[in-house]
């Protein structure tokens, strides 16, 4: 199959990137397409393949000279039903091949059915068993004073409330800069966190980046961030102790999401001297501070 150039639209946070001129082959990365498609699209695609296969094999049976027994009028719909029984390996028994031609087509269809069901079973299992991190990120990063220093903060929480062992967080800034040659380039730098590891993430975690003279965001105002088209990316990974698999989560922010002079509303409340209440209804809320 010849490769064709096409336009692809990619969303990166709030940005929409149009990739043009790539020469892509649809079948070259079909496994990735099956894994990344939504469940409705995946099921619709599987149903379409099933219908196409049965339509083709039903037509091949119909071309033969009475290749299947117990079909009175040799209508195409009867051969289609027989194809469905054969491809799905149901085999009710009332219809069966009775000629060499019928046996040959049925043999090919049985192999196709076994192969396609094996592939489908593997894809469904891979989609269900794929580790997913149910991490909730605050809608807005905030910049406020922490420990007497201006600090960028991002809050996140583990929605499952299971333990994520050895959780590691990395915070990146993306910004437009002008190179020594006078070219505008998009540069990314990692922002140092006060603590970038969590031994057992089960509830909430707030990431802190001090805006000192070592920070690429040092002394940058909202207007400065807008001029540099600043973006933030948070990447969290760790071991899901229940599934015994490494999980990853990512969240991107635009400079318009950053709230200056704000801090997160406290969502922890201790009562009865032994119990702690977490109010996730206030998880995204901020206040002046």
Q: Give the CATH topology of the largest domain.
A: Immunoglobulin-like
User: What is the class of the largest domain in the CATH system?
Assistant: Mainly Beta
Radius of gyration: 29 Å
Quick check: average pLDDT? 88
N-end to C-end Cα span: 61 Å
Subcellular location: Membrane
Organism: Bradyrhizobium erythrophlei
Membrane topology: Multi-pass membrane protein
InterPro entries: Ig_E-set, IRK_C, K_chnl_dom, K_chnl_inward-rec_Kir, K_chnl_inward-rec_Kir_cyto
What characteristics describe this protein?
289 residues; alpha+beta; Helix Hairpins; Immunoglobulin-like; 2 domains; 5-stranded mixed beta sheet; 5-stranded antiparallel beta sheet; 5 helices; 16 strands; 28% helix; 37% strand; elongated
What does this structure look like?
The protein is of the alpha+beta class and 289 residues long. It has 2 domains: 37-129, Helix Hairpins, CATH 1.10.287; 135-288, Immunoglobulin-like. Helix content is 28%, strand content 37%. It contains 5 helices and 16 strands. The chain has helices at residues 30-36, 39-63, 76-87, 100-129, 222-227, and strands spanning 4-12, 15-24, 135-137, 142-146, 149-158, 164-178, 184-191, 197-201, 204-210, 231-240, 245-254, 259-260, 262-264, 268-271, 275-278, 286-288. Helix 2 (39-63) runs antiparallel to helix 4. The radius of gyration is 29 Å and the shape is elongated. It is a multi-pass membrane protein. It comes from Bradyrhizobium erythrophlei. Keywords: Ion channel, Ion transport, Membrane, Potassium, Potassium transport, Transmembrane, Transmembrane helix, Transport, Voltage-gated channel. Residues 50-128 form the Potassium channel domain.
